[in-house]
């Protein structure tokens, strides 16, 4: 058993898979979770690095799912949390099914906030621990045809900024927000966005590069990191561009059928 223990959510694919790989490579015992059976195969892959690997299939859009994850830790001290689980959804909001957009909200906001409260409380009490939360530069942009997702990431970006201030006296606790742009993962297929300009683009970031940026940032104790220089520029421009302009720009990327116009 290693001295260090990490939990990585949304670890079956994409950024979460790469973060779990980095944690195992750096000598952490890991507990990985996702809401799909693929997490078992991913866990097998992480075992090659010689640390203890546990996995659990749980729905982190529910309080019960988060509790199931924490119970799987068996009371072990959590030294690192990578709160990466998230869900996207494309198309116009008025056309979206309640259950679908509610799950985006419950996964990205409710589940994330509850998990952070449960994990950060003992970290702050002992004044030691590291947390990496996957936000997004989407949180800076009114997401026409991706409105709920962008809104949830605006919450995550803002919430972690506020929470970081609240726990600032706990100098031994690191809370870092990772903010990538579009990443080459299953996100766009799962969100029914393959027929959009952004979904069809071949210029999306490599999840391994994004995970490495996040890992380096949390280990260095940084407050936040925008992954990729193009995304850094886009994030900076978003702060000075009118919301109506940003929404129209996003529409051109995310409206169904725009893949044919790319």
UniProtKB/TrEMBL annotation:
GO: which molecular function terms? oxidoreductase activity
Q: Taxonomically, which superkingdom?
A: Bacteria
UniProt xrefs under SUPFAM superfamilies: NAD(P)-binding Rossmann-fold domains
Enumerate the UniProt keywords alphabetically.
Answer: Oxidoreductase
InterPro entries the UniProt entry points to: NAD(P)-bd_dom_sf (IPR036291), Sc_DH/Rdtase_CS (IPR020904), SDR_fam (IPR002347)
Is Phosphoprotein set as a keyword in this record? no
- Which CDD domains does the protein's record reference? SDR_c
| Oxidoreductase keyword on record | yes
Q: Which family does it belong to?
A: Belongs to the short-chain dehydrogenases/reductases (SDR) family.
- The identity of this protein, by name, is SDR family NAD(P)-dependent oxidoreductase
Q: Which organism is it from?
A: Sphingomonas populi
Classification lineage: Bacteria, Pseudomonadati, Pseudomonadota, Alphaproteobacteria, Sphingomonadales
């Amino acid at each position: 058993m290693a001295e260090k223990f990490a939990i990585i959510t949304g670890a079956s694919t994409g950024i979460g898979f790469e973060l779990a790989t980095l944690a195992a490579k750096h000598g952490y015992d890991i507990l990985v979770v996702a809401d799909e059976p693929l997490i078992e195969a991913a866990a097998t892959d992480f075992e090659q690095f010689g640390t203890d690997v546990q996995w659990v299939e749980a729905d982190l859009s529910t309080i019960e799912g988060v509790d199931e994850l924490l119970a799987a830790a068996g009371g072990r001290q959590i030294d690192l949390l990578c709160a990466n689980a998230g869900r996207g959804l494309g198309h116009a909001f008025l056309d979206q099914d309640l259950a679908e957009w509610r799950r985006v909200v419950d996964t990205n906001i409710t589940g994330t906030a509850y998990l952070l409260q449960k994990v950060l409380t003992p970290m702050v009490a002992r004044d030691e621990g590291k947390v990496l939360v996957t936000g997004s530069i989407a949180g800076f942009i009114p997401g026409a045809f991706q409105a709920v997702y962008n809104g949830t990431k605006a919450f995550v970006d803002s919430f972690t900024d506020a929470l970081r201030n609240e726990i600032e006296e706990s100098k031994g606790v690191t809370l870092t927000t990772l903010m990538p742009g579009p990443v080459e993962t299953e996100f766009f297929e799962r969100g029914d966005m393959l027929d959009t300009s952004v979904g069809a683009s071949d210029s999306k970031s490599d999840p391994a590069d994004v995970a490495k940026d996040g890992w380096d940032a949390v280990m260095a104790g940084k407050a936040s990191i925008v992954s990729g220089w193009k995304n850094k520029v886009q994030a900076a421009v978003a702060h000075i561009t009118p919301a109506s302009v940003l929404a129209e720009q996003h529409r051109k990327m995310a409206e169904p059928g725009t893949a044919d116009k790319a």
